Each structure stands twice: as C-alpha cells, then as structure tokens.
Amino acid sequence: MKAKFPLRDFAIIAVSKTKEYPIVREAYLQGIRIFGENYIPEATEKFQRLFSEFPNAKDEVQLHHIGPTQTGTLRKLFPLFTATHGVASFSTLKELLKRAEKEQTSISYFLQCNISGEETKHGFSFEEILMAKEQSVPFENPCCKFLGFMGMGPSSGDETETRAAFLRLAQFRDQSFPDKKLSMGMSGDFEWAVELGSNYLRIGSLIFGERTYG
Ligand SMILES: *Cc1c(COP(=O)(O)O)cnc(C)c1O
Q1: Which residue CA neighbors atom 14 of ligand 1 most closely?
Q2: Domain around 182
C-alpha cells in the first residue's frame, strides 16, 4: 500500500504532547505540519478537532506517535497516525503488523533501541535485532513499513555519553541496516543527533515551551 505521505529524509517532529488544542491549532496556522504525541486519546481528541476545523489539514499533517508503543492500545493508532517510534518488543511488532493489515491503512514504525544502557529505558539491544534478522523474523508487510531505529540519550544529558550513545546507534544502522533511518535527538541533545546523522528530531519544549507534566 502506498504511504499516505512521502516520508522525508530529514524532519523535525514538533512534539505537542500535553499542549492544549489552541496551541496545536496555532502551530498548524504558523505552518507546522509534522507533530508528535505520546498519548493516543489526547492526540485523537486534538487532531480530530484540527481536521474538522481545517479539512485540508488531514492531507497535510503527519502525526507521529513517539512512544512507547503499547501492544494493548496500538489498534487506536489507526487511521490517525503516520508512524510510531517506540516499538520495543517483538510481540508489539507482531501485533502492529497484524493490525495494519487488518485496518488496510499504512503505518511506519521505528524500533526503539536501548542505547544508553540504562535499565529503566525501553528498547532492544542490537544483538536482539540482529538475531531476529538472522532468523528472518518479518519486519514489515505491505501495510506496515520498517523505517528505522529510535534511540534516546542518557538521562544525565552528559554530552560525551549522549554523543557516544547516538554514535553507537548510527554505527549499528550503517553496518547492519544501511537503508534505515534514525530517530534521535530531543530539545536537550538535538545538535549532537544532527551531527551524527539523525533523520528525525523529536522536539517538544524548545518549540512549545516547558511542560508542566508528561
Ligand atoms: C516528550 C518526548 C520528546 C520531546 O521532548 P523535549 O525534551 O521536550 O524536546 C521526544 N521524544 C520522546 C520519546 C518524548 O517522550
């Protein structure tokens, strides 16, 4: 199935999670077209409202679910979301592939990798992904496209550690999946992510201001 929107090689995802509808509306009017949200019900409410107020927005806006992708609620990603960035288990991936076929709606996804080594972070190890590749685990189908890898820097925000984590993900991609994209970089570390070749930046607070929660 043809993707609803061409997915570009570089994009800034404006992460509007927790921000009220009037803010999303204003961002749309100011020209922002690629949004990111974590909470599916909140996103659905805001973006359905946007699409009913501005019918053209439905064809212009890409909505990215930036994760985590939960197996139990992922059916609610359809048909609103273009992509989800937080697929962190093979059972979730299997469900996503199955559900996309059932809905006959295209969706893309990123596998989340734990690149900081922190136990509290979701995500695959590189070994797990390589093993699945060797075992020919299906990564995509005509409705669901495997776009690349998502990684988050360490909570410390330390420059050396963050750069090292982003570099590990970039090298893993180069060596094992050269045609895949990278989703890495947030408000506090996007410059290092850009230097290391990130394709998708997920920027919230720098665009919309600090969040009081979430
Ligand atoms: C909230 C969030 C972001 C954006 O964070 P900022 O630091 O506000 O830019 C990016 N990625 C994920 C997965 C998030 O949950």
Answers
A1: 66
A2: 11-208
